[in-house]
Amino acid sequence: MRRAGRRGRQVQEGSPMENGVGQEPGTPELPAAEDIPAPRPPRVRPRLVFHTQLAHGSPTGRIEGFTNVKELYAKIAEVFGISPTEILFCTLNTHKVDMQKLLGGQIGLEDFIFAHVRGETKEVEVTKTEDALGLTITDNGAGYAFIKRIKEGSIINRIQTVCVGDSIEAINDHTIVGCRHYEVARMLRELPRAQPFTLRLVQPKKAFGESG
């Protein structure tokens, strides 16, 4: 006796069955479960642990498990019992405000992370006598724009209280926290000439006895 399969295939009565599914004659039987090699366990990535300190001085902490700047700041803040918003930027392998050592996109296994946190706030009045102020601005990727370079002989260079590493918090009482560096640069570029404006700056906290 024969009956038609779903797609016209003829299935013989009495043909062998595997788990209730018809198996065609001549089809090799599946190997027994004990003959199937166990799948290899997924490779476990080693946990990367980094050492960190606050740049103005602190015990050494250990951090791990971050994938971006905001997570890094959160880990550092947790170790030292501060708010992540206190961190202005980080340098690698030096506690100094050295923009050549600024933390960028990659951290090596041997790199030591120094976090520069908020220090004193200061306000300076600037008169834009030229189109360019002489500032190069960058940001920390977490809401703070700060001064990366000051051009020698420029308007800003003549104001001794403005330093590399200072975070720009406000322009004419308009807060710029959360803005990217190119947005801040555009705001400064669009300020009219010959009209004074005010910068509110936050300098990184310095170690005891350390001068500008």
Tell me about this structure.
This protein is mainly beta and 212 residues long. The chain has one domain (49-204): Roll (Pdz3 Domain), CATH 2.30.42.10. It is 10% helix and 33% strand. It has 2 helices and 13 strands, in the order E-E-E-E-E-E-H-E-E-E-E-E-E-H-E. It has helices at residues 69-80, 181-189; strands at 2-4, 10-12, 17-18, 21-22, 49-54, 61-64, 87-92, 112-127, 135-139, 145-150, 167-171, 174-175, 196-204. The strands form 3 sheets. Strands 5, 6, 7, 8, 9, 10, 11, 12 and 13 form a 9-stranded mixed beta sheet that branches. The protein is elongated, with a radius of gyration of 31 Å. The N and C termini lie far apart (99 Å). Residues 1-44 are annotated as: Disordered. This is GIPC3 protein.
The CATH architecture name reads: Roll
Distance, first to last CA? 99 Å
Strand proportion, as a percent range, falls in 25-35%
Number of strands: 13
Shape: elongated
Q: Look at the structure and give the mean pLDDT.
A: 82
Give the CATH superfamily.
PDZ domain
CATH topology: Pdz3 Domain
What is the SS-derived class?
mainly beta
Low-confidence stretches: 1-25
Order of helix and strand elements from N to C terminus: EEEEEEHEEEEEEHE
Q: What is the makeup of the main sheet?
A: 9 strands, mixed
User: In CATH's first tier, which class applies?
Assistant: Mainly Beta
Radius of gyration: 31 Å
Region (Disordered): 1-44
Protein name: GIPC3 protein
Organism: Alca torda (Razorbill)
Family: Belongs to the GIPC family.
